[in-house]
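hey m, so remember when u said the tokens were messed up on ur end? i reran from scratch. heres the input so u can diff it against urs
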Amino acid sequence: MRRTVFFISDSTGITAETIGNSILAQFEGVHFDTHRLPFVDDAIKAEAAALRIKTKYAQEGQRPIVVNTMADRRLCDIVAESGALMMDVFAPFMEPLEDELGAKRSGAVNRSHGLVDFDRYEARINATNYALAHDDGLDVNYNESDVVLVGVSRSGKTPTCLYMALHYGVCAANYPLTDDDLDKLELPSRLKPYRSRLFGLTIDPMRLAQIREQRRPGSKYATLKQCQWELAQADKLMRRENIPVLNTTHTSIEEISSKIFEHLGIERHMY
């Protein structure tokens, strides 16, 4: 089964897409052809979106699904004229909140991702610059770090650091365990002062070999044997040093980050 889904928003569409994909993931066996339509913030854009959806409906003979986070009900009504199944993400929450607060929604557009707090925005930028400067052991001065991820090459350290920086303003560094570190089975001296901030990432050997093969085809670095050895040694090292470890093979970056925060006691809100 195939169905077309539109994520429509008066802002970036990130919220609609994130929530929508989480819902759609519950329906196995259905292939969803998704489209994001951001910044639908006036009647002209809403009419254009409705026409696009209506055209898709006519082509496929099945009504499209719309996951909608537009705040202006007038724009929602215009899009609804397309005949699509409308799923308003905000609808279940607005009326109870209006009753509880004794106030009506503003209907103002572009509120979800507006730069309402410049200090938080600057913190995200600074944290991102920090993650880039301290990626793969480029800079090993971790005095300002909130967390230092440790693991073998290509185990998911860099994307996790960047996610934590971009979304939470967390100063995350990462240190790749080298063959020398793994041979000695000893925590590198540069990491010892920051033991309380260390968190280990590991991965399935087969998956690691696939990732490395794409990066360096035909190299020893990408062989399954090398990956197995590195991961086994890294596991021994982190067990010996009592470093918490998470397997990233089947874990999303969002979940990895949440588990790191929970274990290290880092309390940050998504910006």
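this time it looks ok to me. The chain has ten helices and eight strands. if urs says something different then somethings off w ur setup not the seq
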